[in-house]
Q: What sequence folds into this?
């Protein structure tokens, strides 16, 4: 018997989830088991998530992406969020985080777990205020931990726990002024709770109790970056690095309890700092998988932050990040709608695949080879079938059809591919 995927791996047991991941990643079951035992790969797989199609996150595996959704006080339409869930599953995202903070959160969460083959993540501290219908300062440490258990019992596969912001890291933050202070929602809530009550962060003070809950259900802990930079001005500063050191210490404690760990990483960061930050995380956190929120590489593109994030995500993943949190065009502006969500997913999938090519992931370049072969053969339908998003290129093609169906309306009969193919076959070409 085993308690968690990590416990099984350390006992030499290959679980059904390990078999599924090995097949998807074109690796041996023994290799996957070994990486999980070391903490370099995780398979978030709650025992109560029966619809899960297991995925691995970590070293040597395909870069995975996560989609955030959920109800809020200003936008609390349950059906709209479920339509996003359906679309995210259709687009084959590997993870969905339910960030609901208002209303029937448990009902939404349970339905999400019930229908989703993608792994499900949550941030329990978001839910606590609404669940207890109390002001933040009046919630007790035990009540915060009870919400963690409720989420685990509901079948959530991984949870973001902001345990790295404690009294000492909070002191460091206050002594080292930032332009944008704390931009992590969960981090700001825990900082405010500590300041208002004078108490230590309960997720840090009672970390062992949190780990016992997570081990009971085999929930992976995603150690939240409460002090991630919210502007490129604040990146790689004392607060960010101090918290990362604490997260490394918390990683080892989790592994002692056979709890799988991933680390959440920087939000806003200039391009030239990204590679170094990936190395720092892997060294300070002992090779644990890295889950990056962006990084957003410039602060001046509201409405286009799916692009700024995809640029940063591709660079981060190429340099060792394992898991990308999507960013939508609505970032910093509003709750994303269905179209925003799709744009964010596609941008993140492009970034992830571009990084997989750079990392030499098995099968990554072959996909591009097939696409290039279809382009050479002017096989439009195969191009659409191979595309990350087949819907948009089909619409573009159908909206502007050329005189000669072998070409498109940009080049027409001057199409380089068409004409070179003909000449190489010994055929004549007619351009006029």
A:
């Amino acid at each position: 018997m085993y308690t968690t995927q990590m416990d099984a791996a350390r006992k030499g047991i290959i679980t059904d989830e390990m078999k599924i991941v090995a097949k998807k990643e074109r690796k041996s079951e023994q290799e996957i088991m070994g990486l999980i035992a070391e903490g370099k790969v995780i398979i978030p797989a709650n025992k109560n998530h029966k619809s899960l199609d297991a995925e691995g996150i970590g070293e040597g595996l395909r870069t995975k992406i996560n989609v955030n959704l959920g109800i809020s006080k200003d936008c609390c339409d349950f059906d709209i969020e479920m339509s996003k869930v359906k679309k995210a599953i259709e687009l084959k995202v590997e993870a969905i985080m339910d960030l609901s903070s208002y209303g029937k959160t448990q009902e939404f969460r349970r339905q999400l777990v019930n229908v989703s083959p993608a792994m499900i993540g949550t941030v329990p501290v978001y839910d606590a205020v609404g669940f207890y219908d109390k002001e933040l300062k009046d919630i007790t440490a035990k009540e915060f931990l009870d919400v963690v258990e409720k989420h685990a019992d509901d079948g959530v596969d991984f949870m973001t726990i902001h345990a790295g912001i404690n009294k000492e890291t909070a002191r460091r933050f206050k002594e080292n002024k930032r332009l944008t202070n704390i931009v992590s929602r969960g981090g700001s809530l825990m900082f405010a709770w500590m300041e208002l009550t004078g108490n230590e962060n309960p997720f840090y003070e009672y970390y062992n109790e949190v780990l016992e809950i997570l081990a009971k259900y085999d929930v992976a802990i995603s150690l939240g970056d409460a002090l991630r930079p919210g502007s490129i001005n604040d990146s790689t500063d004392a607060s960010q690095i101090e918290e990362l050191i604490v997260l490394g210490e918390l990683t080892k404690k989790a592994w002692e309890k056979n709890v799988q760990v991933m680390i959440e990483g920087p939000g806003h960061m200039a391009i030239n700092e990204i590679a170094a930050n990936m190395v720092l995380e892997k060294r300070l956190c002992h090779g644990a998988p890295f889950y990056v929120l962006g990084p957003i590489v410039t602060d001046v593109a509201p409405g286009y932050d799916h692009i700024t994030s995809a640029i940063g995500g591709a660079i981060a993943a190429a340099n060792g990040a394992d898991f990308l949190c999507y960013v939508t065009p609505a970032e910093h502006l509003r709750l994303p709608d269905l179209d925003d969500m799709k744009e964010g997913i596609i941008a993140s999938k492009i970034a992830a695949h571009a990084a997989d090519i750079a990392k030499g992931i098995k099968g990554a370049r072959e996909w591009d080879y097939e696409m290039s072969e279809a382009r050479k053969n002017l096989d439009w339908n195969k191009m659409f079938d191979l595309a990350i998003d087949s819907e948009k290129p089909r619409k573009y093609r159908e909206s502007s059809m050329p005189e000669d169906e072998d070409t498109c309306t940009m080049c027409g009969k001057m199409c380089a591919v068409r004409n070179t193919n003909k000449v190489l076959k010994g055929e004549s070409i007619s351009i006029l």
Summary: The radius of gyration is 23 Å.
